[in-house]
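Pair request: fold both.
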Amino acid sequence: MRRSLVSTRLEGTDSDEHVALCWVVVVGCVVVCRVFETDMTTDASGMLFREKNTVLKLELDDGNMDGSPSLWVATTDSSISRWPITNTTVASEKSSQSTDSPLPTPTQIAPSFTLSGSPGIVRHHVLNNKRQILTKDTSEQVALWDVLMAKKLEDLGKVDFDEETQKRFERVYVPNWFTADSRTGMLNIRLDGSDALSAWMIAKAIGLTDDDADDTRLNLGSLVLQALLEYWPQTHRILENGHENPLASSGKTDEAGQTQEVQRGNGYFSVARHTPVVFGESGDCGCALLRLQVGDAGNLQEGLLLDETVPPWITDAVIRKNPPAYLKIAFVLLPSTSVLKSLKRDRLSASDYLQVRKVCEHVYEKLFICEEMSGSGSRSEDSSSSRAERAEEKIEILCQDELLDLNMDLRTVKYFIWKSSSDLVLQYRLRLGQVGQGEQDKTGTLEKKVRPKSKTSTL
């Protein structure tokens, strides 16, 4: 790899002769970079210095106080260095070593001045929860980042990057809804319309609520987009006494004296106002169409530019609040009793983020609630929370003879345990200690009742 910068300067006062200096950067490998000086009138060449990192740019400086020139050097490291150079460099280099020397000795060992910058990120790893990223910078520091909330979570210090990655492995599968790169020394997150809205999660699973009974479904891509465009007026909703009024103007009270409130963002979290956002064309070579910070979206000029730039798939998520489509998983639910292998399967379908505990509730309702209704003709008045607790106490769900965690979702079961593109097969059984004579009778009844319908049922 070779980069060059050519500059000229006048030598002497009694001559019109110009001496051209050609600064040539020769990169030996990723971490070694040599800078040579060549006198183009004599073809004499010598090595000025050697940087530790790949050189990106050179700038000749003739304006020093002592009159001696110097060279500013920017590399892949965040620091910028100034190296002294003299008019006798080429001559001294030529006389001090033979022309066939394979590794010339640099005339300068260290820079005269260094502008230290912040360490740049040189390595990153997206954790399989598709929300957190581990990074390592040029100072060997490892950090943990939260993509959803666009912030650093923790500085881990100088720890082994690979060991930390393995330690934070979770048995969970989430669709790829973003891509990350660190080529600029910073962590860049990219959302593309083809997959940005593909990841759904339960609010409890991503820590946005502490209520175990709250099964609110949230789309990760929509949450991020709504937070990034929180200050864009187009995304704001006017609420009057808690109800949306699309015809109301922004303000605290209207003519009738009703209280008005501006609802913005996603209602769960905000990102820092200084977070940079870039809208660009699709593809790796696509150019940037608009650059701004999150807080700038409320300005008049940036707001008008956003009106022209934001694509329809984003306006659907942040303005119209249209929920993206759910991904479905087809699965088969069978009793775990071996004598029932010959029975026809009960085929169901559900959203890919459905947790195993919901399958427990489905089985419990078939096993107990339906039996009570057939015997008494009426359904017992159970709250959903109490029914869910009893279902978890009595029912177990298995896949490939492995007992499933109730918090695991169907896509994780299919990816890590089933490991096949065919329909997922789940089995159910009563927990140990729950099988009495009554339960055995009900199990036998269920085996007869849970037979497939003519079409796939939705759970």
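--- second member of the pair ---
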Amino acid sequence: SVTVAGDASDNNPGFSGGGRGGTGPRFVIDVLVNCDPATLPNSGSLVERAAHHSNDGSCGLMPRLLPPGAAGGVAVVLTLPLNHLAAISAVRLKALKDLRSAAARSTGLAAAAEVLARYAGTAGGSDSNDGGQPPLLDPQQDMKLEDEEVSHIVSRLESLEGRLAAHPLWSSSQLLPGLIALQHKYSLAAAARQAKKEIKAAQGLVLADELKARLRVLRRLGYLDNAGLVTSKGRLAAELTTGHDELVLAELLLGGGFADLSPDQLVALCSCFIWGERSDTPLKLRESLQGPLSALRKAARLVGSVAADAKLGVSVDEFVEKFRPELMEACAGWARGQRFADVLALAPDVFEGSLVRAVRRLEELMRQIAGALRGIGDIDLAVTTSYTFDTTSSA
């Protein structure tokens, strides 16, 4: 019998009706076969166990099949996917109607063995089938399918079968192991596609959680209001994109950390936002630079604590240490107009090229700070920042 079993999918590549891409209805067939009793399941319905085999595409539960006339076998009915069917014979045994009893299955199997033996005994005769096998079902002669499209398909099939028979692998002992390995490869590919879908879904969840945490940080620090709209504080932070952390710089600006700073102190403080490398040489800062550095670390600890509370996975101490003061003395000297050799001597562990790149980033950061201050109406501090930048650039 033939049964429609649902739709094929990538999760079940070995169980399909043979449609392209494994899509479309799935069919299963009940087949009377002779099995080695040593390979039969020990418990449960054999038909159910065989159906389980066909569903998952695994051969672990498949009994070993024997020729119909082989001694010592057991006649059973297996439910298998349609793609396990190699061919259909034109010979029909009409006596096979009810195979629920063991005697009926044995009788049917004996009849099939007799038919095979009869054709094998006539092998070589004028009317014998190739190899002494029963004739295959012909769609045109036996099923009376005279449609022109059927003729075209049969012609193509015969051509393909001839090409397959002429191929060196057709009679090779490596063909079956190779096909099994190929099927296993397709199963692994389907499993990999499913795993990628699950990974993508999991990543979406992770990113969604991170987005919610970042929004909590922005609301708690006042960059967003309760309605999720950007505040003036948030517009200031949006203008700052060059430094390590826009929120820390915004907190420092709005908290008065830049007020009453001299040009060299302002430049030195900004250098902490564009430098992150730790020096092996003990750091010695002038007292005039230790105050701005303390204000920076206070602002960084505030932002780091809020981020940690929002479950962003931030270590507060590591976050504070991200703002390194190694270039403060050198940048202060640059702001005072010292020679480049003298400025370089104030940062002995820094290469010349690294120092030049840092100064360029520092100039860009100070431009952004001046523009952000003008955007929120703090014209005096914006003018001071611009004057400091213009003075140091000309120097």
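Observation on the second member. The mean pLDDT is 79.
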